[in-house]
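Quick illustration, no need to memorize.
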Amino acid sequence: MTMSTPIHPHRSARNVVRHVRAWPLWPRNLAIVLSGALLIAAIIVVPILFPLQAGDAETVATMAGSADSPEAFDGYGFMSLIYAHTNAGLRNLILFGFGGVLIAMFLWWLRMPRMLAIAGFMLLAPLSLYLPFFVKDTFTIPLAIAATFLLTRGRVSVWVKVAGVTLFYAAYAVIFRQYYLLIIPVWLFLLLFIEAPISWRMVLLVAIPIVMALVPKEVYDTLQMQRDMVNMARAGFAGEGNRSAFLNLVEPNGVFSFIANFFYAAFRLNLPFDRLAPNNIFLFLNVCIYFWLSFSGMRSANRIVSWPSSLFFAHIVVITIFEPDLGSYLRHASTAILLLASSLAMWDSVFRQKIDRNA
């Protein structure tokens, strides 16, 4: 590729970032510094201003105060064990360290103010929903960092990347959230689909209903019941009307109810227009950006872009099965936004080359 050849977003070159001339680094550096300052402010202020957001953190603190070891080997138990053996200063240092690395990696490849502005907007959800709190989502940050770092290495074997990401997610699933195990087969299917020629993609699409028909009914019923169990257990929840929580559309009963409930949940979670509220608009704008970056990223011929983007979309597919409300959906989706960093960088490079060609 010559220096004058533009990069099409779906025909990316070897590196994520290629451009005609050097662009100044100060906008990116300023964005990192400002975002780091916001992170410090969020750690201090957000738990005070939004105490309802700290529910999981309070649960962890309560468990830590009642026992020196977890009663069960699950996410809350593991977090309570860490909480019991650390002080507030060390926990805040962990929050700032993980959050600072996430912010720096997310912004590192960007140069254009418009892309830095989009990235800054995307960081608002993590800064308000989980980065300031010592909760299970705290440890999705090193998971996202490790997966992104591995998948954006150009000289690493594809098999090492697949094995590494599988190992990372399996370890996280064992300790924190078992449903993360489902992300891996969905991601592997997406990889097969984007890497396959058109004829084989048709075969893969035909294989989906065949494989789904072979899965036992009990598996579908177990997956579907999680949303209803969470929402029915909430104090005062009686069907619709409790914030943005919702129940399944139909009673769990095998594969067809699973499909119906999945698409109903996808509609409720991604098109939150049952009431026109600022938080719903904020969610919708984030969802639009997520789908833009993930779909355009998966179409890229550059695996440094397409593989992390497909892993992010696998997150979206899996959490749609379980999420009980809009707030949980946005929080859990935003824990994986680092996987979209290379897609942001791809568009940053495209826009820069357009400006350079017109200059």
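The longest helix spans residues 26-49.
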